[in-house]
Design a protein that fits this description.
36% helix, mainly alpha, 152 residues, two-stranded antiparallel ribbon, two-stranded antiparallel sheet
């Protein structure tokens, strides 16, 4: 686990009974597993501090609303949880921004990547010294790689 039960108790504004401690311990385990899933398997001793913060935040969020209520009404008071909805309600979860933070900490980059590929045994297209591929019209040659850098 990336955070301890005592650290979680410090984020909550009430004393936990025995059942709540058991639930909180499970929430910390779930949040740590999710953090490793969205990020990577950091060793507990060398995990970035922000991972611990995010795990504590997710576990505390769950402990404040373990039943997954999206709205509670008592008399003339209404309390709403705007971030708990759908499949996340009633479970330990990370928000989209927290997931992005974990991915960035792990060095994962979102987006589209391309790589040059060629079939086995075929010749790659001819290129000049600047890394341009000739074209079959009278225009300028097409740049094969940016800045003339080849992966070969």
């Amino acid at each position: 686990m990336y955070a301890s039960l005592d650290e979680l108790k410090g984020r909550l504004d009430w004393e936990l009974d025995a059942d709540e401690e058991r639930i909180a311990s499970g929430a910390l385990t779930d949040a740590s597993e999710l953090a490793a899933s969205y990020g990577r398997e950091w060793p507990e001793a060398t995990a970035p501090r922000l991972v611990k913060t995010l795990v504590l935040k997710a576990a505390a969020r769950y402990m404040r609303n373990p039943n997954g209520y999206t709205q509670s009404r008592a008399g003339d008071e209404t309390l709403a949880w705007s971030d708990a909805h759908g499949r996340d309600a009633g479970s330990v979860y990370f928000t989209r921004s927290e997931i992005r933070l974990l991915e960035n900490l792990a060095g994962r980059k979102r987006g589209i990547y391309s790589a040059p590929v060629s079939a086995w045994g075929t010749k790659l297209p001819a290129r000049d010294a600047a890394g341009h591929v000739p074209v079959d019209y009278s225009g300028d040659p097409f740049p094969f790689f940016s800045d003339g850098v080849s992966p070969w």
